[in-house]
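Quick one, T. Sequence first:
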Amino acid sequence: MRTPEGTQRSERTAAIGAGIATLAQWSLRLILIAVGLYIVGIVIGQLWIILLPVLLALILSTVLWPPVAFLRRKGWPPALAALTVVVGALGVLTGVIALITPPVASQLENIAAAASDGLT
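Structure tokens:
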């Protein structure tokens, strides 16, 4: 049995209209997410001077907590354990910098020459 041409057209129009409505809804959601991320980026940019030290302190305290907890379990006072771990971490950082500095310093002439060649 054949359906009238008008019925097929109205079904097609309804299907296309529903698809366009769904597409519009998803597009609006995507735009709202993009605007929200942009606003969050602006806020983080404005608060970065506060967020950076806080984030670095959280990372540092997370990394240094296990050795402090170990020393406290061994009976060390909390302040002495924290001080020992911080001084030890600074010593390790100083040692790493001392090991890296001579090779980098010996290559400075090559780096400067390569940079000047790249600019000309």
